Structure formats: C-alpha cells, structure tokens
Amino acid sequence: MQKRPLIFFSMLVLSILLLLGLSACNGEQNSQNDNNKKKDATVTVNKNLNAKNVQSPPVFVNNRDSNTVQIIDSATRNIIKRVKVGKHPTYVQVTPDGNYAYVVNSGSADVSIINTKSYEVVKNIPVGKSPKGVNFTTDGKFAYVINEGEDSVTVIDVPKMKIITVIKTGRFPHNGISSPDSSEFYVTNTASNSISVIDTESQSVTDTIEGVKDFPHNITITPNGKTLWVTLTKSNAIGIVDVKTRKMTETIPVGKGHHVIDLTNDGKFAYVANIGDDTVTVIDAESKKVLKSIQVGKGPHGIAITPDNKEVYIPVTEENKLVVIDTKTNKAVQTIKTDAFPFFTATIGSRGTAYFIKKSMEERHHSHEMESDKHDDTQPESAKTLVISSPLLKTDKSYTYTFNSIGEYVIHCAPHPYMTMKINVKDGKKMREQTVEIKNYTYTPETLEIASGTKVKWINKDTVMHNVVIEK
Q1: How is residue 393 annotated by DSSP?
Q2: Of the four listed, 225, 286, 373, 448, which is most buried by Cβ atoms within 10 Å?
Q3: What are the residues whose beta carbons fall under 8 Å from the beta carbon of 163, sequence distance 6 or more?
Q4: Could you give the residue range(s) of every CATH 2.130.10.10 domain in the chain?
C-alpha cells in the first residue's frame, strides 16, 4: 500500500526530467539555428573585455596643461590615481580588452601606455609630429596614432608594443575609427575634406572618401559598420557617410565649434560635445533627429560613454571638471574636479571598441613582420623655424606682432593646425597696421604682402579659442 505513492512520485520526477531534457535540446537546437542564421555578421560585445572592468570601468581623463592623466572609479566617482605622462596629453583610448590605456602626448610627440591594473606607465613610444587621435582595431591587434603635423598614421602592434609602419594620409589627419570586423580603419583628413580608408591587412590606404565637407574632425561608426558619423567643424554638423557607397549622404546640425562624438554601444543614440557653445547634443541615431541640448560648462571637449550605456563623461576644458550625464534623464548628475585643462576622456568600450563583427569567412591573417623603420619615401618639406606662439585668444581678444625681418612666413593655429595663412615681408616703407580676422576656423585674409616694420593684428571672432603660431 505504501509503495504505490512512491512509484507514482518516481514516475512524475522522471517525466519532469524528460520534459526538461527535451526542452533543453530544443533550446540548444534553436540556439544553433539562430547562430547559423547570424553567422555572416553578428554584432557582439567584445569577448576580450574584462568583466570586472565592464561593471565599473575606470575613466581616463587627459589633463593637457598639467601633463597628467586622472583615473576615476565610475562606481564611486572617486579619483583612483593621478599619472604623470608626456607633454600636453590630448587624446586617449582604452584597448578593446581593457588592459591598457594609450595616451597621446601632442607636445612630446609620443604615446604613454598605461597598464589598467597597476595604473603605471609601462612604455613610451615615439610617434610623428603633433599626434592627436588614437584608436584600435576591434580585435585588439593594432593601434593607429594620427600624426596631424606630418599627414600620417603610426601603426603599433598592440601585443608587442612596437611600431610596424607609418602610413601617409590626406592633409591634417585628426582621428580614426575601426570597422567592427577590423578589416578597415578610417581616418579623417581635416584640410582635405576627406577620409582615408586603410586596409588593415596590407596596412595601406586603399581608398579615399572625398567630399566630406566641411573640415571632418572626429569620427565614430555604427555597431553594424554601415555608417560613419563624422564631426564637421566648419559647418557645425555631423556628416553621415555610407561605408558601402563611400559617400556622405546627409548632415545633422549640432552646436558650435569643433566637436567630439560617441555612440552608445547599442547604436541608438549619439552624444556630441560642442566646445563653441558649451553644450552636448543628444541625437536619436535611427531618426537622425536632435533630442536635446545639455548645458555642461565652458569648453566641453571629449566624450566617453560607459559600456552599459548608462553614463556619459564630458571633460569641460575651461572649468577643470568632468561632467557626468545620466542617459535615462539626459541630465548632468555630477561634476568631478580635474587638473588643468581636461582635454579628452575614454573608458573601456568607448568609441567603437566594445563591439565587433564575427564573419563566416576565414579570419584575416595580419602580417607582423613589417619593418619597424618603414616610412614613406616622400621628401619632407623644408624645416621652418618657430618665431613666436601667442597665448590662446578668447572671443574678441587680439594679438599683434611686428614683422621686422624680410622673408616668407607661415601662420597657423596650434589647437587647429589646418588653419593656415601666409605673409610675405619685403623691403620698403612701413605700412599701416594690418588686421586679420579669425572666424569660422579661417584667417581672413589668407595671404598678406607687407613691408618690413609693419604690425599685424589678429582678432578672434570665433566662439572657440584660437592662437597665432608664426613660423619662418
């Protein structure tokens, strides 16, 4: 009499286990079928990301005028450490696996590599003149450092921390982004109004996207790799570039000044820092509509979105602070004090390094045997001598210089070196003072012919700061 309930219970348990097993098998089969369907192009979170770092990623802030990088715990928003780097650190990016931060020192023309566990500089690598942007292929194999001052890109083997080649680009390149499958790397050429397309296997420019007006500056890419989002300095807009057709298809108006952009890792929203009007523009990436403009303080430059898409970090250059934006409310929720002139920021997964595309085709095999001293054979321009560099000029401020020596002078702006003009000084009677207006990232007039002893005054009419660098 007592055995019957026991037998019934045993049969019930076996039935449940059998059903669970069948369900698991079906689930596994469905999963395999789904994987097969998506095998050609699957966008996934980068498998190399450190899980602990993704949950509370450290935020790296470059402080240009104090030659430091501050590392901030995004969970507590406390400063973990302050690291001394090279001269005038501008751009920074974290490797796709989260193990290193590459800090570009524009003043000393090198890259400081910081270990993200010890927060120590483990290596300094010399690169080209006036380096600016840095980014990685999403597989983590290569770093590309953009040398704005010599129209080139330095390619670094990330595992070996060694330079493998230098690639010539268009005029005044500024920043770059990898395709999600790591096959191509795109570089903005500000003065050429173009984007250089680098094949990462041959490490050579295989195509140039023309007509990216005006003054393409910073850049990112959608998670599916189909469109590039490019900041257009002179037209105060974001240019949308179709990767397949190699054409800019539309523009989205944003705030004033040169801009920095980042997309959320799900590709739904873009955040744009506008240094000229102290705002951050929020864009719906699908509709291409501006959702909001957020006031953050004077001179926002740089932007980084956390891997969970919950927070946006904005350095505010003229107020020495880092602003934290909550992406749910799109409101600034906290400010963190920084060192002098916080110029740029990065965290794990920011600017396109958090996703990559798996392809069904055989994986590309990159050659690491290129000689480290490989350079372009193009002869360099004759060296110019620095005469003087003015302080940064705020709106309506001016700088005056007297040209006493005969000769040809080239003028440019240190923060925006694609801005240039020429002055030819000849012998003759001193002329009245000449005025040059700085507006819309242009010197007007762009050429002057004057007699020795003549004064030239530059007046900044832009909403961003410029300066006057005189070379002969």
Answers
A1: B
A2: 225
A3: 125, 127, 154, 155, 156, 157, 372
A4: 45-358
